[in-house]
Amino acid sequence: MKVIAISGGGQGLGRAIAYHFASLGYAVSLSDTDAAAGREALAALKAKGATALFAHADVGKALDVKAWMARTVKELGVPDVLINNAGIMIRKDVLKLKPEEFSRVIATNLGGAFLCSQAAAKVMAKRGLGGTIINIVSTRAFMSEPNTEGYSASKGGIVALTHAMAVSLAPYRIRVNAISPGWIEVRDWQKSSKAEAPHHSQEDREQHPVGRVGIPADIAEACQFLAESAGFMTGQNITIDGGMTVKMIYAE
Predict the structure, then answer these.
(1) Count of other CB atoms within 10 angstroms of residue 74
(2) Prediction pTM value
(3) 10 Å Cβ neighbour count for 6?
(4) 18 within a domain of the structure (yes/no)
(5) Has residue 251 been placed in a domain?
(6) 136 and 219 Cβ atoms separated by less than 8 Å
(7) 252 lies in a domain?
(8) How far is CA 142 from CA 101, 220, 246, in A?
């Protein structure tokens, strides 16, 4: 049985990716800082017959990452796939953003992607069968809204980390790629206490050349492609945003 490890897998996009790979027969290891969300996701996976575990972990902390990866290897086996999905955003006036707030976002998003990749790569390399690392980035690595400096900087850093680690890990047959989602609707993929039915206006839909807002399956299926079918791809970033970033916008 193949094994996948997903950070930030308790709810949102991470949970959707977990369910998708579980449906493909993977054993799933989840980590999240939200224990309630993680336990709920784990229970749902097991109810579907999946082999899974949940670890309460902060990916910005090296000891948490080390413990999560060690438990994954012990209980499920060496991950064949790692999805670096965990991330936080602090939206605050850039003139009032505290250095420690900026650093926290960088440590979680960019530092977490590095720590998880390093931990997974060590056990993948030791096993000697290669592996796949997929970093969930964001179109905000390339374009921004106001007051998102930490988030945008961290996501831009993950793009660079992707191609750097792709080269460094190539001798171990570990491929590293990234996906940059645009607007992906995940309100209905939150833990039960927060979940709500999504609603989109015609204007929301028409912002996208494809005519709709994205859904988690759009990203989960791309992860499957990178994990199982993209053997000649490494160091790449795939933008999945319904065409939003290529559409010119003029002020009325």
Answers:
(1) 9
(2) 0.95
(3) 31
(4) yes
(5) no
(6) yes
(7) no
(8) 21, 22, 12
Amino acid residing at 205? R
How confident is the model at residue 91, as a pLDDT? Answer: 96
Q: What is the pLDDT of residue 252?
A: 65
The single residue of 19, 26, 151, 172 carrying the catalytic annotation is 151
Closest to 131 (Cα-Cα) out of 83, 172, 63, 80:
80
Which portions of the chain are predicted below pLDDT 70?
A: 251-252
Tell me what pLDDT residue 106 has: 98
Do residues 11 and 36 make contact, with C-beta atoms less than 8 angstroms apart?
no
Number of structural domains found in the chain: 1
Q: What is the pLDDT of residue 248?
A: 82
Active-site annotation holds for 250: no
**Cβ atoms of residues 51 and 76 within 8 Å:** yes
Structure tokens at 116: 């998880």
Domain span at residue 12?
3-246
Give 107-170 as a DSSP string.
Answer: IIIIIHHHHHHHHHHHHHHHHTS-EEEEEE--GGGTS--TT-HHHHHHHHHHHHHHHHHHHHTG
Task: Please return the burial class of 147, using the count of CB atoms within 10 Å of its CB with bins 0-12, 13-18 and 19+.
Answer: middle
Q: Whose CA is closest to 10, among 131, 189, 206?
A: 189
Query: Is-contact 117 168, C-beta < 8 A?
Result: no
Q: Which residue do the tokens 């290891």 mark?
A: 29
**Which token pair is 79?**
């991950």
Residue 86 counted as domain residue: yes
| Token reading at 67 | 């413990």
CATH number of the domain encompassing residue 215: 3.40.50.720
C-beta neighbour count of 75 within 10 angstroms = 14
Structure tokens at 138: 């964001």
Supply the pLDDT for residue 191.
Answer: 87
* Residue 173: DSSP 8-state: T
